[in-house]
Amino acid sequence: MGCKCSVEKYFDSLPDDVDIIDVSFKNLNYLPDLSRFKNLKKLYCGGNYLTSLPVLPNKLKELYCSFNKLSLLPVLPEKLKYLNCSNNELTSLSVLPKNLKELYCFNNKLTSLPVLSEKLEKLNCSINQLTSLPILPENLKVLLCFHNKLSLLQVLPENLKELMIFANPINNIILNNNDLKIINKNIKTLNNFRYLYYCLKYRKRFFGIMEPIIKKRYHPSYLYNLKEEDNLDKKLGEW
Q1: Cross-referenced Pfam families, in alphabetical order (predicted)?
Q2: Fewer CB under 10 Å: which end of the chain, C or N?
Q3: Does 215 reside within a domain?
Q4: pLDDT band at 29, cuts 50/70/90?
Q5: Dihedral, CA atoms, 125, 128, 133, 138, nearest 10 degrees?
Q6: 17, 40, 59, 106, 218 from 35: Cα distances, Å
């Protein structure tokens, strides 16, 4: 379907009232006019070589256009509820529809996000160049924003259940009493990873220093020196 004639032929064969079009992974470098598909609800066009999209039908509710070469999105229909535009070359997003519930825009070149829909429940904006996030809607349940340039994470929504923010230079997080299942905060883990890195890097020198101490403390003769009144749990804990 890669050639222009095949693309046109395929779309010409579709009835006007079609509600789903799937042209994923067809080696397409363009999409023809979609204006006659007034009942189109779902459009799958991911995994191609698209650099732009045509005007989208007003009734479209789901758009899957990931893994392309898009640098800009067209005006998004107000009824759109699901948008996956990840793995493209987007530097910005157009105004987001008020009904949008899920947004996946990871692995692009975004430096900012537009105002988010109040109905948004899932947001994955990871692997971009974001320095800040817009106000997060109260309905948001999943927020994935790792591998960005965020230094501050604002107050999180009460309904948030999943949060992944590692690989950011974050030095301040404002938290409510959220029932979080996953909190990957590099604030607490960065030093641990750094410590682990240097332990591994200089492990030979470390073991050279610590080996005599370890042998002494773990030697069976150590047990003979324990007094009857000694707290065994405390002694073992000091090992």
Answers
A1: LRR_4
A2: C
A3: yes
A4: very high
A5: 0
A6: 11, 10, 11, 29, 77
